[in-house]
Design goal:
Length: 365
């Protein structure tokens, strides 16, 4: 049993992938070839965003978003302590201070009611994370941001394809960033990411930042970087977009099966009214998570503990001076969340084995 099954997906679309890759090999434009522009147009249309700029990774997308907004030393950006490290890392890398607010226990997303108390005269942006595959309350977050004239950057690395009241993730905020890391619901066969915005000035900055600050050859208006997505990854992602909506439906069917059979023995993930979920991860909670994981491993069931150490506990952010229990909901989540195998191609037999094993083992702990 695999935690994520990429091979079955490849077998389904191998003809399209091979055809698209062959076209790249034929024209030889491996960097910024026509597939990149096609992918950006496809993604922008899907999201309902005016502009999309592909990038070399989700992490570099977040970095570019901050730089495009002019965020740097002395500034503060509000985010969450329970996420992949890149979320806070990029804030610190540009010289700003990550300011954490706790998460909600039901969705693992930013607790919107805690944002306003964290805003200071140095706050320059709010960066909520659409964790595990669904969005936080973007209407409330955008309203708070508007009152304080702050941009919102959605870290949508795990939620591409999700919706909130009909609005797509990546299309609900000033800027949104997503990732095409292979394990994501829409993943390539290497690193990749994208930025979305409706702001033309930001769009033009993104274009320059990903290419060494250059709008054209031998002219550099900004200090940028090499953050380009290669044509082969764009070709692969275009092939995957052909089946993406169907895969979201398949993920939801598996999630529904998990929830129906596991809700009595552990805490299963909640989907906020108005939200759709893409289940980048199916995350259960159990007070004896580590013991449960160990027992499942003995039965051949792979599981993953994501963020078992919150960002405010990480040595690289020790300068922030946080105590371990400063964010109790995030802390409890880091010690209790266990992610189960999730793939559109997880067989019924494997699904049954997983739920029946958890039912039996969770009751024994």
């Amino acid at each position: 049993m695999q935690f994520i099954d990429l091979q079955s997906q490849y077998h389904r679309i191998s003809a399209s992938i091979k055809s698209r890759i062959e076209k790249v090999l034929d024209h030889g434009q491996y960097i910024m070839g026509p597939e990149v522009k096609e992918l950006e147009a496809t993604l922008a249309t899907y999201v309902g965003s005016k502009y999309c700029v592909s990038t070399g990774s989700g992490t570099v997308s977040l970095d570019m978003a901050l730089r495009a907004l002019g965020i740097g030393p002395g500034d503060e950006v509000i985010t969450v302590p329970y996420s992949f490290f890149a979320t806070a890392e990029v804030i610190a890398i540009v010289g700003a201070k990550p300011v954490f607010v706790d998460i909600r226990p039901d969705t693992f997303c930013m607790d919107e009611d805690r944002i306003e108390a964290a805003i200071t005269s140095r706050t320059r942006a709010i960066m909520p994370v659409s964790l595990y595959g669904q969005m936080p309350d973007m209407k409330k977050i955008n309203q708070i941001a508007a009152r304080h004239q702050l941009p919102v950057i959605e870290d949508a690395a795990q939620s591409f394809g999700a919706r909130q009241n009909g609005v797509h993730s990546c299309g609900a905020t000033t800027i949104a960033s997503t990732s095409f890391y292979p394990a994501k619901p829409l993943g390539g066969y290497g690193e990749g990411g994208a930025l979305f915005t409706n702001d033309e000035e930001l769009y033009q900055k993104f274009i320059m930042l990903r290419n060494h600050g250059s709008p054209k050859r031998d002219e550099h208006l900004l200090l940028g970087m090499n953050a380009r997505l290669d044509s082969l990854q764009a070709a692969i992602l275009l092939a995957k977009m052909e089946i993406f909506e169907d895969e979201i439906l398949l993920r939801n069917r598996i999630a529904d099966f998990y929830t129906r059979h596991l809700s009595t023995v552990c805490t299963t993930p909640a989907t906020t009214p108005g939200n759709t979920h893409v289940y980048a991860q199916y995350s259960i909670r159990h007070p004896k998570r580590d013991q449960l994981q160990s027992l499942l491993a003995k039965e051949g069931i792979p599981t993953v503990t994501h963020y078992s150490r919150c960002m405010h506990e990480q040595p690289a952010l020790a300068m922030l001076g946080h105590k371990t229990d400063d964010f109790p909901v995030a802390l409890a989540s880091s010690r209790q969340v266990l992610c189960l195998p999730m793939s559109p191609y997880l067989s019924e037999a494997d699904q049954e084995k997983i739920v029946y094993s958890i039912q039996r083992l969770a009751k024994s702990l």
